[in-house]
## 1
Amino acid sequence: MARIGVFVCHCGENIGRTVDCHAVAEGCKDVPGVVHSVDYKYMCSDPGQQMVKKAIEEKGLTGVVVAACSPHMHEKTFRRAAAGAGLNAFLCEMANVREHCSWIHEDREKATVKAIDITRTIIEKVKHNVPLSTIRIPVTRRALVIGGGIAGIQAALDIADGGREVILVEKGPSIGGHMSQLSETFPTLDCSQCILTPRMVEVYQHPRIKLYAYSEVESVEGYIGNFKVTVRRKARSVDEEKCNGCGACTQVCPNKKIPSEFDCGLGKRTAIYVPFPQAVPNLPTVDRNKCLLFMNRAKGRPDTCKKCAEACEKGAIDFDQQDRLITEDVGAIVVATGYQLYTIGKDQPKDNLKGYGEYGYGTIPDVIDGLQFERLASASGPTSGKILRPSDGKVPKRIVFLQCIGSRDPQKGMEYCSKICCMYVAKHTMLYHHKVHDGVATVFYMDIRAAGKGYEEFSRRAIEEEGAQYIRGRVSRMWREGDVIKILGFDTLEGEPIEMDADMVVLATAMRPQPGIDVLAQKLSVSYDQHGFINEAHPKLRPVETNTAGIYVAGACQAPRDIPDAVAMASATASKVLGLFANEMLEREPTVARVDEGTCAGCFHCERVCAYGAVEHKDIKDRAGNVVRVIAYVNPGVCQGCGTCEATCPSKSVELQGFTDEQIWSEIQALGV
Amino acid sequence: MGSHEHSRNHSGPEPLAARVQRMTGLNPACCYQCGKCSAGCPMAAETTLRPHDVMRLVARDRLDKLADADGLWLCLTCETCTSRCPNGCDPARTMDALREIFATGKDGKPPKAISAFHKSFLAQVRAHGRLFEMGLIMSYKLGGGPMFADVTTTPSVLARGKLGLAPHNVKGLDEVRRIFDACAAVAAEEEGR
Ligand SMILES: Cc1cc2nc3c(=O)[nH]c(=O)nc-3n(C[C@H](O)[C@H](O)[C@H](O)COP(=O)(O)OP(=O)(O)OC[C@H]3O[C@@H](n4cnc5c(N)ncnc54)[C@H](O)[C@@H]3O)c2cc1C
Ligand code: SF4
Ligand code: SF4
Ligand code: SF4
Ligand code: SF4
């Protein structure tokens, strides 16, 4: 026979104001099975918890019902208290009489009746509760980091410094991400490469980091603590073991006119190339779409050019190298795939953004984007740091920056603010001012958003000390007349249209997630927003976790982020990962689905509806080892306890522990409906 | 609404902001355009150019627009704007500098009456070391001020003894003259630029 204890909480005034808590305790006393029913001002306080413990011990309770706030708030508190008194934690349940009752009603009498009803349903449920034990799953204490920008680099270093192995997968030929392309960085104007390259080298030399550059994640299986990841190591056509990075091959390649991705098309590279001198790893890669040998092979012609192979003293060039698939076991994954910019041309990669016809769709050669400006301003860039315009290599004396291009523009771009462009435009005006002393930098802006530490001071410095002319308003149209760019804008402070001639225009285009992020997110079963940014589990309290356990997110793939943000997020993911890896076993709530092997018909409806991929196939064999039946098996490590399978199963063979049909049914019956 | 060509050369080789900065030691680029100055300006409702407008036009090199408006001349120099400004811009001093620029007559002239008033005022101070109201009224009206405005109030003001008929000079009138001469020398130098 059940011996249930009921504990009604006033939550100060929160519940007590609208619900007569004493009446609730009294009203539950004569429910069959209830042997103890009391009310108290703050049940979650230490004396409140002691009341629960004492009653369990003295009255030999077999179940506890705490009528108080949502289980989200204090279920853990009371279950721990119950366990402390020797009762299985899962025999303790909460009846929510706050969020579901006192907070939403005014009529005290009716609310009290409702509170009694709510409590009675849980009493009936608890009568059917069975002791459960937490699930313990082993944890593979190695991490995978996807993306080798500053966020991925920081996450990898922090996890590795914390003593765990890391596999860092970067799809490009070198790590470094966009930060390696920047010249100087706001708000301190320190040289980007000078602060980044030491970290890149550290990654390369770290005994606990395995770097797979020029590689991509092919597939991901498993669940928190137990992921199996297949990585595609794309063929570089260069043998890593043999190559010593001398660069002789790149010197001789005859195809020298390929627009360099690293220089945003402003410089040229060869078909076999190292993207930039400090690349990590310092290995050349053959671009098979541009290599003469491979272009011939594609047309079924014999190999002609082999100049690089001939120049290589180590015999490292391997034209027959194939992609390799490598499998790695990891316990946690950090996604740090970064961003791309809204392109200024007509075609936006992979979707139907309209682009900016009014700014010439990128057809005016001296209209460039922010990253291109970074390359022009960079000492390692195509102009060795001189600000020269692309069309004729002249120094632009009148430079104009347009902010919010593709941002804050739901019609043609994104409705969100890209957050970093106000700052980098301020930076660009300064870099320009430092290099072209007699030039004038003009900025068209809607607002100046400079809400970081030292950011407002930085943007004011551009205006007050470095002579940048800020005009509040957007530009309506730009066109080319001779070698001059005509600009038609509006000055909303003066309330006048404004016409202006410029020698060069820089568009601060929106930050967007990397192309292909949707495919990767689907492989990982993490959710993303309508723009493709990876969703965090909670915008305030769980900013670096995704809603898939064991997968974390850092940097600009979650939202527009600057370097300090990206690094802070990366370190936060590392602390989460190291926390997960602190124990060999991972404890999970036992509220997971279980299949009744006797009745499961193997229809796999459950498999089709499970959003988390938790349902697996299990062979039932006879004595001779022949498979006689294939039934469903729910992997407790993956199951999130949503109950969808339970609702779907036609033979009622799958049940969520702690929420069985019997339990739910008795709750309903308690209401007498 | 007229549109304007943007160029840095409205006022000759030296941009207006730089010129004002040279005269005042203040940086017109510091203005946030927050409007706090104009919010407190007692003349804001009367004028077409409020202090924040003036700051913006200086930063944008719009001597042309400044010359056309009455704002500079309606300013009371009460300095409320200056005491309110969060970024130390001192619009009152800036407007002073602009009045100096326009007073030279090279970049546009102040309205005739206002100019007459200023000149008469200074002439009185130079002559007596202080203001001699009767003298001011006479020279203002003769110098271009409105001839018959306010004449009806004269008897009552006289009756209350608020308007003396004979001037009283201050002690040390020589020193006042020396100040005037020194200022004139600086002005001549400025004009020579
Ligand atoms: C013009 C401009 C100027 C800027 N200036 C500054 C500044 O001065 N100061 C500042 O703080 N910030 C600045 N930023 C912002 C800065 O670039 C970002 O904050 C930073 O680069 C974000 O780092 P990240 O690692 O998140 O992303 P990224 O730098 O984009 O790195 C992501 C990496 O992941 C890789 N990757 C992508 N997809 C995959 C995949 N599927 N598999 C494997 N690897 C993948 C990419 O190849 C890349 O290496 C600027 C940005 C721009 C556009
Ligand atoms: S950061 Fe500034 S420029 Fe960029 S979208 Fe936001 S407001 Fe516009
Ligand atoms: S309860 Fe939900 S998560 Fe678990 S197996 Fe069923 S459908 Fe999947
Ligand atoms: S000094 Fe002039 S502009 Fe400033 S508040 Fe007074 S009247 Fe207005
Ligand atoms: S002068 Fe000062 S108070 Fe006036 S708008 Fe500019 S910053 Fe604001």
## 2
Amino acid sequence: MKSKTEQFKKEARRALTSGNMQLAISRASKRFSQLRRQAFAHLPEGEDLRTRAQAIKAEAVERQEEYLEQFAAAAEKLGARVHRSPDGADACRYIEDLARTSGVRMVVKGKSMTTEEIGLNGALEQAGFQVWETDLGEFIIQLAGEPPSHIIAPALHKTQQEIADLFVEKLGVPLYEDPQKLTMVAREFLREKYFQAGLGISGANFALAETGTIVILENEGNARFSTTFPRIHVAVVGLEKVIPGLSELRVFLKLLARSATGQKMSTYVSLISGPGRKNEVDGPEELHIILLDNGRARFRQDAELRTSLYCLRCGACLNVCPVYQRIGGHAYGWVYSGPIGSAMTPQFLGTLRAKDLPLASTLCGACAEVCPVRIPLPDLLLTLRRRIVEAKGHSGWERSLIKGWAACQSSPGCYRIALELARLGKDFVPGLLPPGIELPDKNFHRLWQDEYQD
Amino acid sequence: MSGNPPTTVTLFIPCLMDGLFPSAAGDLVYLLRRLGFRVEYPPDQTCCGQPAFNQGYFEPARKLARRYIDIFAGAECIVCPSGSCTAMVKKHYPALFAQEPETFSRAKALGEKIFEASQFLTAFVAPERIKARFTGRATYHDSCHSSRGLGIFDEPRRLLAEVRGLELVEMEDSRACCGFGGLFSKRFPEVSQAIGLEKIKQIQATGAEWVIGNDPGCLMNIQGHLNRLGLPIRVKHLVEVLGGRSDGRGKREEGREKEKT
Ligand code: SF4
């Protein structure tokens, strides 16, 4: 996906004045976080599970190579073809070639952030294939020609009215107000695509090393359709998705849906072990699993930011983030938004290119409080901020200001003069203090001297 | 209450408190003395370095942290009327010196004896001994670094529950960020403001005349929004309420002279 992270400030301002969209985002994200809170209130072992989950991820990332080999061997034994892609371009090429040589014309997709990351839809369309997103939210933004604005609810920024209008315009159906009716329209439209498509593409939430199984969680059943109906299924799986096996999966199954939507369990949990077998009615003839690096091996070497690879893409940190709640996902300018986006995007695209992202946080810590794998998100943002400074990413003016400030703070005399100056100068420096904030005549240093000192 | 109370309390009054809320800091001195503590205030103290640290300027922050550690190392116990500055010393100082074992252990030791004011009061004083009066309807804002950073939530409420005349009304989400974030509010003023307005809506919904908090940064930010909107609601620092010398309208019950011990 193309990035416009450099325009964060502009896009954030645009989002703030967008009225409808702003309202839709804040409503939906608040609703999600409420549901999450309720779900965890009924899960007394929730905090322990989070600690467990973090430990599992830490170990899995530590021994990632080992687990990946085990996974690949097991999956191949089941008849899957495993391909390792160093980057997005390679993955896209692999899928294009596969589609071409297999005579495929239409592709259906289950929701996958990883394929958004590598811009797969665009690549396939350019190569002449018809691509249909089958997740309702993804389908909506595909029709609208927009990128996802939330990890799990890509069309979260759209109001019902906008969706209704969009369907009229793009699908030629009458104007329906009822969300259920709109869902039915999308379903009917997509149903025939499953039958026509020769290739189904999905991501994966987990890859189990022990059994070579990929695990997909969803609520609409569309991913199951997309991975079983077409003759070929391709799963694009980030390297960090590999975990040891089923017993670890159990921990995540308890946490993921609760963190994402407050559900006890996702409506559909598909465990896919190999392509369809001879005597089975369901399942594709071919299963291709692409293990995608696209920078992940490099992130893994980065001791300070490595925990970001634990991410389950549940979206909980977005929902509670005061910044995300106000500006939504598009302003972040790339696939991943919210706190985890601010921690990952600079790793994917370069610290300075995405430098506004880690800075655009109050470090309030709401994200870390809900992350099911306890990623210390504010600490990651601080590390990135330090790197921006180290790379001289700020203006010379700012750098000198901070330097001068620190020098002044190192001298009690200078500090006191600065306090006095702030009092005297606040009316001359607009914006130094919020409106109507008065600085009392005597600061505490003086008050102490005059009134409190023993 | 936990452990033996210290005899001497060393005050750390962060820069924003120093400049913006000096009389609240004075109320804290008054209160601590009334409760029987000896109060010290090292006059050479300046800023803890948090503004630089939060923006990733770790070197300047280290420089100020070293200075701070030297100034406060000898204290028996440090009390600070700001959650975020306490968190800075307690959590981030050790992290800043991860590569310097000696300074690291000094930072750690310092972290163990610093308390945010409400933590200190609930740990070493029976709240009913404070006997504060404050007339009015108030709501409490939990600052992020206080609530999520230091795990403070019950402490201020236990203290406020004992204040005569005070009616505390909780807002929908008292722990929601006020949008300040130090330099964040300068880098992204529109976003900061939008977050702040959410907070103000919640405050307004309580019908409170006062917003109490324990972080000068948040209080300044919230008051700024209230002023901008022309709302008659005012902020109060927790220690100002507990100091018990004002009736909520700023009138001192006792003359300054008498406060001297
Ligand atoms: S960082 Fe944590 S909370 Fe955010 S999406 Fe990833 S797993 Fe979920």
## 3
Amino acid sequence: MIKKIVLNLIFLSPLVYMLYGLQSAVDPIKYIYIHTGSTAIVMLILTLCITPLRKVKNLVKYRRFVGLYTFFYAFLHFINFFVLDAELSVAFVIKQTLDKPFVYLGMISFVVLLFMSITSTRKLFKKYRTWHNGVYLVLGIITIHASMAQKVLSAVEYFYIFMAVILIGHRAFKSKWISRFFANFLQKRVKTA
Amino acid sequence: MDIIKKPSWHISENEVTDEALFNKRRDFLKLGAASIVLTTTVMEQLSAVETTKRDPLKFKKTSFGKDLNINDFNQASTYNNFYEFSLKKSEPAKLAHTLNPSPWDIEIGGEVEKPFTLSMEEIIKSYPLQERIYRFRCVEGWAMVVPWIGFSLSHIIKLAKPNSKAKFVKFTTLFDPKQFPDQAKGMFGNIPYPYVEGLRMDEAMNDLTILSVGMYGKTLPKQNGAPLRLIVPWKYGFKSIKSIVKIEFVQEQPINTWNAISSKEYGFYANVNPQVDHPRWSQARERKLGSFFKQKTLMFNGYEKEVANMYKDMDLRKFI
Ligand code: HEM
């Protein structure tokens, strides 16, 4: 119980930190974008590190918890877009989503994360288990999204890209579908040779 | 002077003998940690102010922008795009102490009668300084209103006597890796250096175009482009090049730095235009610094009357 409270406090601390700095933020809307966006992508990376590292330390039982916090910060990010940036204009949201690759990449990720959060209960997860692989799609496109938000890339974006390549690469390597593909491919080569 | 202000709840040592508090020493430790955090923010604020030690200037007030709502000095001097120092807008205020704006010379050359050099002292002595309150709109979507102090660029142009081949004016920022840390990183720098900007001759001669030496009554803070920068209020902020060392008159349109980095996103003209979006975001509205609410972006940043005729035959979707 105490552990749970402490964990929640840890995962809420980026929000507290953000609210504390918000009073003196010069460009508040941008400030909220940066803080919620960066927190969400870092938590997404953390979530996806749990599986490959489970042999080192098994934290799989926390995966859903970290994943839900990823969604929580992505949700705050979206609310910033809808309430402060779009000023509640649905027309603006739709137009930007259709017009700007930068925005639709964010929107697709947000919708996938929303779907995963809803289907993360034990019962629904059983049914939609394979759909949850979509999280790797989210990682890939949100890395592009975060990079597109910059005028020029800096070390932070290179770190996101590096982590995305490692995590997606690792998952692809483990995937049955891909290994079967390679096996078939090799077999054919052997036969034709 | 008591530099580090104690927060109102600060507990001085001799009060801590209270037994109840003694038992709550854990809470006290936390308070201690909090006060460290607070003092570091106070110190940060102080250091930001210190890098902006500025001399007062003599200038005339003008009617430019007298109805506009001016931003705080703090906002204009702690939110800077100055990639020679850092990509982060809060950093130039802390790092700019390495820039040394005096002595400072400006080379004037290219298609002119005779190239020459001007020192900052000469400039400040020779031209009557004016205060001009202008809107400033960044291509990233934020905006502010700043009381600049400067003089019309046309003074320098008249002094230089460009010949008939001169069609554009090219400006160059100082290149000195000792003063601009990011320039020391070579090909790993944030952007290619030195930073270059340009104006068409008629734009350069426009009455709104000024060379600024100060803001908010005093000389420019280093992070705002001391000692001399361009201000072209109807264009996106990146046109308003900082810390200028060279002004050249040229025949061909100069390739300005952001245009060289990404020509699809940043053009030569960079006129503020709410109808033409940046490929990645809308330019229709803007975030005025310090506000949670956006406001409409105005055509030519509100200077349509003064500048629109210069572009009347141009397709503004093409010439971004
Ligand atoms: C709902 C759809 C989304 C929209 C409309 C959206 C919009 C934006 C905007 C406008 C910015 C840049 C603001 C600026 O720099 O001017 C941004 C930056 C960013 N977003 Fe999103 N976003 C969305 C979803 C997401 C999601 C789901 C994530 C992460 C899981 C995310 C992560 C980021 C990151 C890391 C940045 C970069 C922040 C920085 O500048 O350091 N976004 N987003």
## 4
Amino acid sequence: MNGPEPPRPGRPRPPPVPPGLPGGAPAPLGYPRGPWPTDEPPTRRFPRPDPDRCDGCAACARACPNGALRTAPSASGTVVSLDYGLCLFCHLCVDACPSGAMAAGPMGELAVRHRDDLRLVRGGPRPDPERLRHEVGERVGRLFAGSLSIRAVDAGSCNGCEVEIAALQWPRYDLERLGIYFVASPRHADALLVSGPVTRNMRAALERTYRAVPGPSFVIAVGACGISGGPFVGSAEIEGGVDRVLPVEVYIPGCPPSPLGLLYGLWLALGRAEPRLRQGELPAPVGSVPGTADRRTPARRPP
Amino acid sequence: MSPIPREGEEAVEGPRVPREEPAAPLDRATEREMLGSLRAGTVRWEPTEELWRLSVEPAQWVWSSRTATEGLGHRLSTLFADRTGDGPGGLRVHALFLGQGSSAGVHLSVGLDPLRPRLASLVDPIPYVAPFEREAAESFGVEFEGARDRRPLRRHGARDPEPRPAAGDPPAGSPAVPADRFAAVEGEGVHEIAVGPVHAGVIEPGHFRFQVVGERILRLEIRLGYTHKGTERLLSGRPADLGTIWAESISGDMSLAGAMAYAQAVERARGSVVAPADDRARGLLLELERTAFLLGDLAGIALDIGYAVGAARANGLREEAYRTLARLTGSRLGRSILAVGGLRRPLLPVPSDRVAATLVGLGQRTRSWSEELLDKSSVLDRLEGTGTLPRWVAELVPCVGPVARASGLRRDLRADRPYGPYRGIEVRVPRAREGDVKARFQVKVAEIEEACRLAGQFLEARDRAGTGGNPSAGPSVAVAAPSPTDGLGWVESPRGEFLVHVRLDPAGTVGRVHVRDPSFLNWPALEWAVRGNIVPDFPLINKSFNLSYSGYDR
Ligand code: SF4
Ligand code: SF4
């Protein structure tokens, strides 16, 4: 050793970021315990046909890229059927409608417990609700409301849904404040959060992951893909939705669903919120404030 | 530790690496002469695509590809098959070669007999052609004579065994698909670790097979195809204007890049021009997407070295970038805003100064965050020398995007083949020499800064153009009305060179679309970079590459 090393010049440090400069992390969130945040950017909401303004031109159905929206003539005007489980929220129908009958819906709380609650039929007979019985069903809230461990499985998604699922762990959404955790192994999980249209190459892996989850457990289908195949509906390479393979407890529509929509879906799964959509219809009048969901409903606490 | 070198700075290329200037591009006449020597059926110069399109005979296939790679110094960028009819020549194989820097590209195509499509494999002049040929063999039944790897790319052992032949399954009577197996390493103490397709994090599915001794990785083989959705086939026959919707779902984390590449391909096929205001808006959105995407990479690197506070801060910045996209487009990922010919609808009215300040803030915060991170010896210990991808491997693979640039290659389509918003502006291409995780980290930091600068520049140009600068949602003008034909779209996506090739049917619908995601080229580089590293470093190395599974599988 030849004595102590001479002090090395430090690296030039960048100037400190001035306080108050925008572009920092967004504020933390109170939702879903509190109301829908007011500082949320205006994201595209679900399309909503208004039968009073519709003149039956079917321009919306022609514009819809994947057949989520269909029209059929009937004696009493035009029947518009819309499947929010297929809808990509692309708003091509809204842009195409010449009479302004397609409008953006008022809220982002779209998750439902039954597939049929995503199907809207305006002006025609309603589909019979096929209320499936699930393994845990209404007991989910009681079983897991205090703490829920989730294993996310990508069953062939485009990675769009993964971006938003991963965002739940980020500072703003901070899922763990709700007692909900992502775990690394299905053996540690209470629920599977499945995105993607279930490709033929992922079907076996998905089924095996499901079998590895200790019961009682349940499945949440995320995104248009997870519900119905989404944009890929019609491809021979997919099964077309998680419920073709596994029983699904909650469906969270969107392409991809926003992190807030995912939070609502998880809250719904835990029985802490009531579903707002019923057979595609909103109980509240159009224009009601987003996020006035049934937050007043007393939360079902574990016994 | 040197600051991140920028393009052109001497610090970029140290004394140990000889400075390699890209060969000066040949002039068009010389190129034409060289290509003319191929005696191709037709040679067509496509000015909007800066591309020579040649139709050659099967017997000339290998030779003309050699001319493109060895003679002109190009690299194979994509190879795919297309079926246009049942008669002779009804099945065509296309190969696209792009050159160094700004030289013109070469597009070769050859017609084959659809009943018995056979073609010489390009594996000898171009070793990395294998996945392309495997894909064409699998989906179109093309038999590549002399190919050494004939394993199926997507119809492998994991496939749902239900007897449901999909359209495009190889016709009955085609050579049996060889067994799908992994190479094994034998010897004392060698064992195998199989990981996936379901991984521990919130990430896409793929299968990794490691051969290891103790903790050290001898060899890694990656099997993908789990997210194959048949997107390309699904698009055939759809109205060309709708295609952006599916292009956004090729790699959902680069929705805008995918839509942009597709839109450009159709625009070039139709010969339409995009209004400058729309172009600037596209540029702004693309650079915002790059910022958000790369911040996610940085956060992932921080998380995988166990630096949770750093990861949270980078993710907070990323969230802000996505929220800015949402304020501008109504969609956090920028979905359904780009359209063929421009934008689908005008950007939402957001005060420009607020967006500009956010961009400045994102860039500055990323820089100071990264400086703080790289000041910690425990961070450097994990990043330095981990997952090194030498330049010569990056060149051989051949890598694109930040992965290539972190190994010293200067490849950036925004600078090399400027398109749309990038025409006539200067794009700085940051590079590093070492090719390790730290180099990729630093390159990505510098790219975020550059993306924020460019986005700010597009925003400024929009404001300078006055109130009329808000982009129109109207259709673009068709300058020429050529018979509907082929178009190539290229975008420097956050992961690198993203190519979309579109053939339009006479009716204006999509005939065939082929997507070459940057990850299709880059995945083999990951297999190289992990060798000699320890298994626990794999997630970190993987994150520093952050390749797309869905883009590879489509
Ligand atoms: S918003 Fe939904 S219903 Fe409307 S065109 Fe898009 S996918 Fe179809
Ligand atoms: S629902 Fe949309 S975002 Fe989600 S995986 Fe499917 S295509 Fe991607």
